[in-house]
Amino acid sequence: MLHFCAKFLGTRIVCKVAAFNLTPLDTYNYPKEVAWEIDENSKKEHIRLAKTINDDENIIGVIVQHEYGIFGGSEGRKILHFMQNCKKPMLVTLHTILPHPTDKMQEVTREIIKLAQIIVVLTDESKKIIEELYGEAEGKVTVIPHGIHPTKFATPEKYKSKLELEKRIVLSTFGLLSRGKGIEYVIKSLPLVIKKYPTLLYLVLGETHPVIQRKEGEKYRIELIKLVNKLNLQKHVKFYDQYLSLPNLFAFLKATDIYISSSTNPNQAVSGTLSYALGSGRTVISTQFAQAKEMVTNDIGRLVAIRDSRGMTNALLDLLSDKKRLKKMHLNAYNKTRPMLWSNVAERYINLLKQKIFPPFTINHLVRMTDAFGLFQFASLTTPDTKFGYTLDDNARALILCSWLIKKNYTKEHERLITIYLNFAKHCFQEDGTFINYIDFANKLPTKQNNSENLEDTQGRVLWALGEIISNNSLSVSLRNEAKTIFLRALEKSSKLQFERSQAFAIKAFARVLPFLPEHKARLDEYIKIHANSLVQSLNLHSHESWTWFENHLLYNNGILPESLLIAGEVTKNAEYTKKGILSLSFLIRETFSPHMYRPIGNSEWYVHTKKRSEYDQQPEDPASMISALAYAYRNTHDEEYKKQAKLCFSWFLGNNSVRLSMYDDKSGGCYDGLHFNKVNLNEGAESLLSYLMSSYIINEL
Fold it and tell me: 374 and 424 in contact (C-beta within 8 Å)?
């Protein structure tokens, strides 16, 4: 079965389902969610479905509920025709994971893993097996348990009365009947138990599996009935040959004293029936298959060996010997399974999809945060907070972004915003070639904060922004000339910047305009070398053994430093700059990436060498600078690992972070301001917004 998720995964998700039928002649009364019925053996129908999905702009991702037996071809290989032709991101839930698969099964599974962006398995053991068997699965696999329906806890007595089972000790098993269920071993375990508990009744709930029906009819059920008759258990075993509705199923489960899960397959990864029974608050006895071994502890049930009727007998006698303990175990099972509610499982799927499926790009929040004068610095939730005014830092970031966007798709709105942000830069420019950063909202004048902070980063960042405008042939000559005038007047001051990040911004700016200011080439080359040499000197001074960095601490916006050396190496053809850029970037990667997650340096306390790193307050500026550095490294080395890490870093915004919370607000198109140890800062200011938007643009370009 395939699920196709429409719209971005926010407060509302629309899903369409493709159901796979055994033959073209099969007809089922499917619910309205089923939009397509596919002949599981038809290659053409698989490919046609893939093309339909590709052409539907509303569908942003595909979830494949994979089981080898429900797709056509050897080991279900027909599903590969769909996956090879589908261009939408795919999440595949693998329901069966075998430690010793056949060669054909391995071949199909390996191709599925290769084509999927995300693999979900249902147990920790399944994750361990798949990562050992298939190296290509590393980094793709997440464990999400089988879901359960919400239902209130109740003791068995109330429901026994409803089902006319008063005064009976009720055991039950439910699900589609097949030989793998091992019902015969449960039946064989009952005679000794019934001698001590003569009111015992075992309910076998469910019709025969439709595939089994086609092959052998009711042969297995008839064998079970013969066994019941042979053991003279007619009053103690009852079959319900029907597919139960959820209300009826839960009524039977709640009337149950002990649920029995008797699978004969030790490699069965998961059992939905076991999950539902535990989720209903029922003590279980289960054979030792993968999920049961992980879930069934002594406080909620008992494990027995597969095909071990005597072991089943002993487990029943043990549990039935203490009614008070049995009731407590019911409640334990109920409480233990609350994280498995379908609502929780669905949320985990949504968060996974958000990490892999990029949201649609929108500047709605940028427009909301911008008035006729400039971009506001902060927001109260999503509303501009005017009392903090504006900063040139943020307007420079916005100028860079809009310059990128107008190259891709010219609109009057982009040009309007560029004009606002460029005018703001002109407003902040000083006669001595420097810039102020903070402007008050009420009077549009500089604030006192400009006098208490070093503004070199602002100088470097706005120079980069002006360089983007100067080099953008999609803009009018007048706009480019305005930017050029300011740039050249600020050039001399910008050659004397002292702080590492300011120098790095300046290198990006000078390199950007080199082809567009040929008359200043010698001067710009000289300034690039001055700043690059200074950075190399800082790197050499502070590096030792396992520490390869420009300072004895990791601060903010770290990626800009190695990126600037890579840029300097490319434009000056100086291999030393490139080498140092790669070395420092490799160090930064080691310090901020775990195998499956990016972990930016927390701003609450900077990471000083030899001391414990700060995990929080994580802020969007750091992943943004890292993504920019990795993207530049990828474009210049063609090393796919950099591209992979850039995408992993971007997933930090979408919930692949230490708190598992998305930083992106799909309603506003904004980005939250910071990640704390248990929550996000819900304000959506300009720096966070531009960090997200610039990162999204770069990743989409990759």
Answer: yes
Q: Do domains 2-143 and 156-340 have the same CATH topology?
A: yes
pLDDT for position 4: 54
DSSP letters, 544-605, are: BTTB-SSSSEE-SSTTHHHHHHHHHHHHHT-HHHHHHHHHHHHHHHHHHEETTEE-PPPTTS
Inter-axis angle of helices 323-336 and 309-320, nearest 10: 100
Residue 11 has pLDDT above 70, yes or no: no
User: Per the structure block, which two tokens stand in for 358?
Assistant: 């990029």
Residue extents of the structural domains in the chain: 2-143, 156-340, 389-494
Q: If you compute the radius of gyration of the chain from its CA atoms, what whole number of angstroms results?
A: 32
pLDDT at 6: 45
Structure tokens at 611: 């001391």
Report the SS3 class of residue 439: strand
* Secondary structure (3-state) at 497: coil
Q: How many residues does the chain have?
A: 702
Q: Which residues of 83-119 are buried (b: 16+ CB within 10 A; e: fewer)?
A: bebbebbbbbbbbbbbeebeeebeebbbbbbebbbbb
* Cα 544 from chain centre: 36
What is each CA distance from 562 to 244, 558, 614, in whole angstroms? Answer: 63, 8, 21
How far is residue 21 from each of residues 17, 36, 187, 255, 335, measured CA to CA in Å? 13, 10, 34, 35, 38
Tokens of 581: 């850029």
Closest CA to 241 of 214, 209, 263: 209
Could you read off the pLDDT of 305-321 as tens digits, one per residue? 999 999 999 999 999 99
What dihedral do alpha carbons 152, 156, 162, 163 form, nearest 10°?
A: 120
Which residues, at least 6 apart from 618, have a Cβ–Cβ distance to it below 8 Å?
Answer: 599, 600, 601, 602, 603, 657, 658, 674, 675
Cβ neighbours of residue 232 closer than 8 Å, sequence gap 6 or more: none
Contact 491, 480 (CB under 8 A): no
Q: Measured on CA atoms in the order 505, 508, 512, 514, is the torsion positive or negative?
A: positive
430 to 265, 427, 435, 486, 487: CA distances (angstroms):
77, 8, 6, 10, 12
CATH top-level class of 2-143: alpha beta
DSSP symbols for 191-202: HHHHHH-TTEEE
Could you report the per-residue pLDDT of 351-408, keeping only the tens digit for each?
A: 787 767 777 789 999 999 999 999 999 999 999 999 999 999 999 999 999 999 999 8
Query: Around Cβ 511, how many Cβ atoms within 10 Å?
Result: 20
Tell me the C-alpha distance between 614 and 20, whole Å.
Answer: 50
Specify the amino acid at residue 591. Answer: E
Rounded Cα gap, residues 218 and 211, in angstroms: 11
521-542 vs 575-592: helix axis angle to the nearest 10?
50
Q: How far apart are CA 9 and CA 2, in angstroms?
A: 17
CATH class belonging to 156-340: alpha beta
Give the Cα separation of 420 and 442 in Å (integer): 17
Task: Round to the nearest angstrom and report the end-to-end CA distance of the chain.
Answer: 32
d(CA 179, CA 177): 7
What are φ and ψ of residue 285, in 5° steps?
-115, 125
Residue type, 330: H
Amino acid at 377: Q
pTM here? 0.69
CB 20 within 8 A of CB 71: yes
Residue 570 CB-density burial (10 A; 0-12 exposed, 13-18 middle, 19+ buried): middle
The neighbour count for residue 318, using CB atoms within 10 Å, is 12
pLDDT higher at 2 or 476? 476
How far is CA 168 from its chain centroid? 48
For the stretch 175-216, pLDDT in tens is 999 988 999 999 999 999 999 999 999 999 999 888 788 888
CA distance 562 to 468: 20
Beta bridge partners of 593: 598
DSSP 3-state of 478: helix
Q: How far apart are alpha carbons 355 and 359 in whole angstroms?
A: 9
